[in-house]
Amino acid sequence: MKPPGLRLKLTLAYSVILTVLLALSCVAAYYLFESQLEAEITDELADRVEALRGYTHFKNDVPTLIFKENDPEVALFVRTAARYHQIYSLTTGELVSQSTEMQLLGLGLVPNEVRTASQESGPVDIETDDGRLRFLNDRVVSPSGQEYLVQVGISMEPVHFALRRFVRISLILVPFGLVLAATAGWLLTGSALRPVRRIIHAAHEIEVSNLAQRLPLTGSGDELDNLATTFNEVFARLEKAFGELRQLTGSIAHELRTPIAALRGEAEIAMLHAQSVGELKDVLASQLEEFDKLARMIDQLLTLARSEAGEVRFERRSFDISNAIGEVVDTFSLLASARRISLDSEPGKDLIATVDPQWLERVLVNVLDNAIKYTPPGGHVSIRGTLEPDAVRIEVQDSGPGISAEALPHIFERFYRADPSRNKEVEGVGLGLSFAKWIVEQHGGTIHAVSEVNRGTCFTIRFPRSG
Ligand code: ADP
Question: What number does the ligand 1 atom closest to the CA of 402 have?
Fold first, then answer.
């Protein structure tokens, strides 16, 4: 079964919370309303007791209700107020007068009850066949000093009636309100989640072949817009990574095809035409060079994969960079002289920095290799190590073709090769400088290039000094 969607869950949660809140408010309102009505009816009862006292006169020392019977207003008031009314002598406990309702309901008191009732000052509720009645006791004293208990009652039916009505109205209005609120909640969550549906729809359409597509933004700057922006940033990174991967695959295929074709051609010719072991050895020697190139490239690709996977570990220690300069110069001196390039070096002294010597050498090899391979025969290359207050500086200067101002900002990007037509002659996949930069930065250093077309290029590398 399909799990319930967010819209249904939100609407349900919202409706449940609303039901609980409404139920609690109704219960609270019910009790407030009840106590308010009861307080009002008690006040009304007290008013009646007060008023009836005014109409109580003594005839032969016996309290009697006397009022103008021909005044309809007064007559109505006194009859209503005295509907539940009885008077007892407090001396004897005997009944003096009693309204018909009290008589019919059998609410008369025995002498003991008269005495107890005379002690009660607050209202007393009694359940009767006429419903609940509330009584207040009053005392009157005759001119001769006789005390009487006057009991006045009021029906609580209007309170019950009002409360029953409140419950009935609540039972109709609350479910109606809930249905209305749940429908509104359903519609609101629907419209709030509409951008999510749009994002889902758009995300479904994005595939490797159209990674340039982006999720729609509403421009509202809300959470969903932020989510879409974040996804778009992820897609942009993926697009870039896929682009690089495509470029890498293309470059690898291209770079592998040329040496493999050359190797195959040489092997074919050797098989058909080589007459002696000497000739075969010559072919093998030239093939060894091609194998070296291939091995270098594969090595670069492996390092790239390892660095991407975060597997590369640096073993940093205090190291004199002038030694590394000396070593790379030794390595490249043969190649330089074979290409008729003069290679000068000033390795400097005590260029101590905390580096991983093997990775440092890789940086120097990449930069010096570029200088030599891009500089035409007859040119100069020099490498110099110097000490700065905070850093060890290495400069590699060549008199090569230089790098155009448009290409210069990109040369440290992966797989970037400036001026492809010129670069056709020179082997490379555009990884050397990006590696060099990555390694230098992992050591807390910097690398940058200054170049002038047809005059040459100077790479400056800085590593922080030890201590
Ligand atoms: P590649 O394998 O192409 O040499 P790099 O990352 O080492 O890759 O260099 C990137 C690009 O920078 C090269 O393709 C080249 O166009 C340019 N470049 C690097 N060093 C030099 C240099 N010393 N002189 C001229 N161009 C250079």
Answer: 25
